[in-house]
Every structure is written in C-alpha cells, then in structure tokens.
Design a protein that fits this description.
This protein has about 400 residues and is α+β, with helices and mostly antiparallel strands. About 35% of the residues lie in helices and about 25% in strands. Strands 5, 6, 14, 15, 16, 17, 18 and 19 form an eight-stranded mixed sheet that branches. A five-stranded parallel sheet has the order 8-2-1-12-21. Helix 1 runs parallel beside helix 3.
Length: about 400
C-alpha cells in the first residue's frame, strides 16, 4: 500500500519511523520534520481518526499546535475557545477558575486528526495508512518494522500506538498502572449552542460529566466513573439518557437537542509502560503512560513530548548516538513530562471519590479564584503545585468557615 501523503525524493532514507498516527504520533512527526528529519508515520487504520476522549486542549497544548502550524487547518466549525474550568457540585455550589494565560480550545477529535494529517502531508512526512504493525526488530544499524503495508526501515522508532500491549511485549516492555483503581469513560456530542465560556465539570455520586464546546453549535458530554461504581444505567436501551438522570441540570440543557455522534465508551484509563526501553526506541503519548481524563492534560502532555523530541533527537541522530545510554536523557525528559501531571491528577481523583472533601474544596475555591487559577497553572506545568499563593489560601480558609451562597443550577 503506498503512502497517502507526500513521498520523499528518490534516494532519501527514513530517519524516524513513527508507529501510530494519532495526535501524539502526528505531532511528533510534524515537529521532527520541521527540524529537517525524514519521517514516516505508520497508521493501522486510516485518517481522520476518531476516539472516545475529552476534547478540551489546555492553553499550553494549543500553543504547541500553533507553533507546529496545525491550527491553520482548523476553523470555527471544528473548535471553540474556553477561558477556564467551572465545577458544579451536586449540592448546588459552584467554583470557577480562569487560566493564568491563554485560552483553552475544545476541538472535535476527527477535526484535530484531519488538521494534523494535512499539516504533516504538507511538510513531506510519509504517511502510510492501513499499515498495522506486525513485528519490530531492533538491529545494530537501525529499526526494521514489518506491517501489512510492507517493510519499513529507519534509524530510530518513536512508538505512539497507545496501549498496544502485543507490540510493547516485542520491545520487552510490560503494562502497568499509575493508579490502583480502574476508571472508565464514555461520550456523546450534541448540536446546540454553548452556554458557558468554560469547560464545565458536573459532579454526582460516583460520576463526573464534562461539558466541552467543540465547534460552532456543538458540545461534547464526556462521562467518567470508577469500575467499582459502574453505573447500572449502562444496561439501559438509552444509556446516555439514563445516565443524565444523575445530572438533572445538565439534562435540562440537552433536552430536545439532536445528537451529533453515537454514545461510545472506553477504558480502563490508567496505564503506563514499564521496563527498560531498548536501543533506538522512544515512547510518547499513551504508549508511555496515561493517567485519567479528569484534568484534561492528556493531549497537552503528548504535544509537549513531541516538542521535547524535536529539541533533542536530531542531534542524537546526526551523531549516531541512538543506544539506550545515549537516549536516556531524552527518555527521562519524556517520562518526567508524564509524571509531572500525576500530583494534580491524584488530588482531582480524591475529589471524585470523596464527596465530603469535594464539597469543602469547591466551597474554598469559590471564595478564592486565585487558588483555583494556581491549580490550573500547576496542572499545565507552568507553576509548581506546592508554591501556593498565600492570599489565595487565606481566602480559601475563609470560604471553609463562611461558605459562598449556593447558585441555582440552570
């Protein structure tokens, strides 16, 4: 099967093989191509790709897409900006945090896939679809990959194929979990006007609902829950409608609105690859590790990792330093990018599982938007989590003693 994108000139050789044509793989391919490397992406299916996920991209992630030239391929029908995050608790209280800088963007996943694909094609990345990988062989002089589309060779392999345990086992890696509890999710889109400038998080017993604007006249509703609290409503003939009974205020917003996608689920969510990475192999995105959609940092982490690769890998390729020891600083940076999100993620999961603590937190955050903004900055990696604003902590403490008045849910 011939590549669907641009083909390199005769005599050119591939330096980087990217396995997986999702957002992480395509972003890495674009970033590396902008550095002058020859890159081929192997995608098991075809583009554009869809996936069950939250569609909100944090300001840092959107800035990466802008620097890669991807945002030029997205129009208002594909994406919508948002200013921050708003929590709605099931007792009627609310808290809002605004990003310290920039805007987030809700982007329909298919549109994001199409934009990344078009940008990669424009730059001359070799894009090979229907290329489900069968074997990966690490050789002294390079990497050889055999797929349904044929054989492919490169100097280094960037593995961005998600939780493909079969291929990871070929690389002597094993699956692990950063969290003990298993979480699952689902989503559906609806045609309706947005009613908020934020991504809204609605809390209910054992479940959260995330409302993200993702284009003119479209919102995505994503749901997350623990396996131990698997909702009985999933067995209903109309599972989404049944689940919305847990969020009456949100259900009223969607009453009579036309669906724009079918109800789909995914999980388990928490994942990470364990074991020493072989020579000439780097992992990014979900292949390296993924925590949970509760903080919305999955895509932004992948884009940060793509930028890190582009900063560090070309020099290693030029010098021919691609063994495990030479690549260790890059690997450590990629792993740290993932691990840096875990503290705020753990804190958010505590709120999801302990309603009493969540109510206290929302009460405090409602009094201290400054503190909420701090947590958003920490979540995006632009501020250390432990460096709390003293004024924000003081107002949060006042909020615990003198709670803000409840707001009436729409």
């Amino acid at each position: 099967m011939a590549p669907t994108g641009s083909v390199l000139s005769m005599g050119s050789s591939i330096q980087v093989l990217v396995i997986g044509g999702g957002p992480a793989g395509l972003a890495a391919a674009i970033a590396l191509r902008l550095k002058g490397l020859t890159v081929e992406v192997l995608e098991g299916k075809t583009w554009p790709r869809d996936r069950v996920c939250g569609e909100g991209i944090m300001p840092t992630g959107w800035a990466c897409l802008e620097s890669l030239g991807v945002t030029d391929y997205l129009g208002p029908e594909d994406c919508s900006p948002f200013e921050g995050i708003r929590y709605w608790d099931d007792d009627g209280r609310t808290a809002r945090g605004v990003f310290p800088a920039g805007l987030g963007m809700g982007v329909r996943r298919q549109a994001l896939s199409r934009a990344l694909h078009e940008r990669a094609r424009e730059l001359g990345v070799v894009l090979t679809d229907h290329a489900r990988v069968k074997t990966i062989t690490i050789q002294a002089e390079g990497v050889r990959v055999v797929s349904r589309a044929g054989a492919h060779e490169g100097e280094v392999c960037v593995f961005a194929a998600g939780r493909n345990t079969g291929l990871l086992e070929q690389l002597s890696l094993r699956p692990g979990r950063p969290f003990k509890r298993r979480r699952f999710g689902a989503r559906q889109h609806f045609r309706c006007s947005r009613w908020s400038d934020d991504v809204e998080v609605w809390w209910s017993k054992g479940m959260e609902a995330y409302v993200t604007p993702s284009g003119d006249g479209r919102v995505e509703i994503a749901l997350l829950w623990d396996q131990t609290n698997e909702p009985a409503e999933l067995q209903s003939p109309e599972p989404f409608k049944a689940l919305m009974s847990r969020f009456p205020g949100l259900a009223r917003r969607l009453d009579g609105k036309e669906s724009d996608s079918r109800f789909q689920g995914t999980g388990p969510l928490a994942w990470q690859a364990l074991g020493p990475w072989p020579d000439r192999v780097l992992l990014i995105g979900d292949s390296l590790g993924y925590g949970d959609g509760i903080t919305g940092e999955g895509l932004s982490v992948s884009f940060d990792q793509a930028m890190l690769l582009a900063d560090e890998l070309p020099q290693r390729i030029t010098c021919g330093e691609l063994d495990q020891q030479a690549l260790q600083p890059i690997r450590q940076g990629l792993i740290e990018t993932f691990h840096s999100t875990l503290p705020t993620l753990r804190a958010a999961l505590i709120l999801a599982r302990w309603p009493f603590l969540r109510r206290l937190a929302i009460r405090a955050l409602s009094r201290s938007p400054q503190l909420f903004r701090h947590f958003l900055a920490a979540n995006m990696g632009v501020r250390p989590l432990w460096r709390f604003p003293l004024g924000g902590l003081l107002w949060a403490a006042i909020g615990l003693v003198v709670p803000a008045r409840k707001e009436i849910k729409p």
